Amino acid sequence: MSEIGIIDADFLNSNTRFPNLALMKISGYYDSELIQYDNIPQYDHVYLSKVFESTHVPEDVFQKSNLTYGGTGFYFDNAEPLPAEIEHCTPDYTLYHDYVDKKPATKYYFDTSVGFTTRGCFRQCKFCVNRNKTKSVKWSELDEFVNPEHKRIVLLDDNILACKDRMQILHDLIDCDKPFEYKQGLDIRLINNEIAKILIESKYYKDFVFAFDDYANKDLIIPKFDLWTDYESSIGKNTKIYLLCAYKSIDLQDICELFERIRILFRYKFLPYVMRYKNWENSEYRGMYITITRWCNQPSLVKKKSFREFCQMFPDHYAPNRYLREFENQHPEIAAKYFDMRFGE
Predict the structure, then answer these.
(1) Is 335 left (phi over 0), alpha (psi -120 to 50) or beta?
(2) CA 182 to chain centre
């Protein structure tokens, strides 16, 4: 019988605290084990994967004749899918156990079932790995990947709410009687009363997460915020909103639109979470992108401090204070509008 090795490049580079589902499925099919790069020659075949493009893999690894590599980190939207017999086998949830300590920060490796209930999305956002897909389709039944001994379920679906079978899937999750979450977030533009009600009444795990990626969609999204708030107010959970920036542009307008989206979220008491597209590093407002992100992505601070108060936490010669002063000197009218706004006002 062939000996199969598995390499999770993101895990070796400490780029993630989340298991690679494709590798767990390969291991479930072949009964393989997690290895290091140096161990490749000892195995009949080795499967290597990475999710993130930024993860480094030694160049000499690709010369190994017994290596197969894949994943969005290598091919982005052109990553080759797993064969059906592997895609739909039960993941090997023990794959990482010899490498990870049982600590709260690594709970996903020990007590969480991971899978897709649907695949695909019709939005075709150009920054997304699903940009070539045209619809969301039902993918796996829960019993394919849910381990009865695990406490919770994490779904990696691209856009569950775009699938025609969404209500049945959500009912199945409720019947499973385990806390669950859609890790990629949910499409706020598709929320209606029926969906909002079932989500609020479910054992949803952690915060509800949506996205407000483009300020141009405000007229569609704000009424959905109003609808969601009517339901959210009945529970003790936060709502977090992803804010993509530095994608359409990296100029002053993008900074202003980011601040304006934050202002809208503050009014609803939704937590902003800024996600910078890779172009931000080339912007003349690079420092502002850094500082806004640091402010927003710390809930304990963004709830209590305005942008100005956050920056002034630091000594005068520190970067946040310097970026604040420089921007306010150049654009006083924008600073007057946004620098003192507060969460909940």
Answers:
(1) alpha
(2) 9
What is the sign, positive or negative, of the torsion defined by CA atoms of 217, 220, 226, 227? negative
Domains and CATH numbers, the chain: 1-82 (3.40.50)
| Phi, psi dihedrals of residue 5, rounded to the nearest 5° | -110, 150
Would you mind telling me the total number of residues written for the chain in this entry?
345
pTM, two decimal places: 0.91
111-123 burial code (b ≥16 CB/10 A, e <16): ebbbbbbbbbbeb
Q: Could you read off the pLDDT of 230-265 as tens digits, one per residue? A: 998 777 788 999 999 999 999 999 999 999 999 999
pLDDT digits (tens, 9 = 90+) for 66-97: 999 999 999 988 888 999 999 999 999 999 99
Alpha-carbon gap, residue 106 to 19, rounded angstroms:
9
Residue with tokens 């499925």: 25
Segment (H or E) for 262:
helix 252-268
Across 259-268, b (16+ Cβ under 10 Å) vs e yields: bebbebbbeb
